[in-house]
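**Archive record**
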Amino acid sequence: MGRELNRAHSTASESHQHQVTIVVSAFAFISPLSSSMAAPALDRIGEDLHIPHGLQLQIVLSIFLLAYSFGAFVLSPCSEIWGRSRIIRIGNALFVVFNTACGFAQTRAQITAFRFISGFGGSAMLGVSCLACLFLLQIINGYQMGAGILSDCWHPTERGRGFSIYQLAPVLGPALGPIGKPLQPFAEHRNLLATAGGFISQYTTWRWTFWSITTLNVCIQAIGLLILRETYAPRILLLKARKLRAHTKNQNLRTEWEREDRTLPKLLRISLTRPWRLLGTQPIVQLLALYQAYNYGMLYLLISSFPTLWEGRYGMPKGVASLNYISLAVGSLIGAQLCGPLMDLIYKRLKQRYSCPDDRSAPPEFRIPLMIPASVISPCGIFLYAWSAEMKAFWLVPNVSNLVQ
């Protein structure tokens, strides 16, 4: 019965697959957007809340990522107990409340605490751009809820197509965040209302940075309530069994997930410790986690260096300087749309070469080959960016290097 249910989800209508993919991608886009959107406003935040420049001010930006990292170790395993859609909505609600609270913060302690809790809630839709890592963690632990939902909806041979949209979210969010600054209709600057958000940020309060994110997130949450349904097969079976028991009055209709030995404390202990055990004992998980930590760390290192480079070294106004973030977004867009279909093609070819009879026998490592050229190209882009910035080369050169990496 469980296999039939999984098969039913893999053969869901294509329109529903795309609807779910877009909504899940929107959820995964919004919280990384918040993580970096505060970057250009850090100076104003420091002035208003009397936070010294340097480490203490950077903590306001990076504390979100700390909670983002550890929150996934709690919320994602919980989705295996209470279902993916419920945990996503709870986490997103937590993110909305405390992201809004960031806009009302009056002290350093308040904004730091609010950023941490909002990051914890936002981690419910934590995304990783590396598909191999997603599928390994999904198979072992159901670790990424966004990846889990899409894996429930898309057939293994088509998942690259679905993930080509989803994997953009965690990269486009930080890349577009510093551009997509909030707009606040000041009467004396009404002529700016139709311009890019990066320009308008010069004339708004930093508090609207957080409030605009909340407004957008509430809209996404409303759409998610209409479209997102439970996709985790064991949870669906459990709900179906409960409905059948209520309808037939037959209390013997139970799933294997309702055994007496599957108590809530035991399930929590197993689910919450499994990611840490895998990270501590499985070399493949350790290597992929290290690789992704490097990629994500380099992304935020680049983002944090942009104001100094473009405003300080190149002398660009804040609005014009913010447009340079587009290079990261364009590179992510091109890479995702190329790699998704290519990954599906490689997966199918390797299945045929090694005579895998079905998708269950095909190892997730079949999705790794594209990481080889990527791991070579990315450092080249980093070196080109550093060299061109040091030499103060034509502004297009650093942007091309960002696009490449």
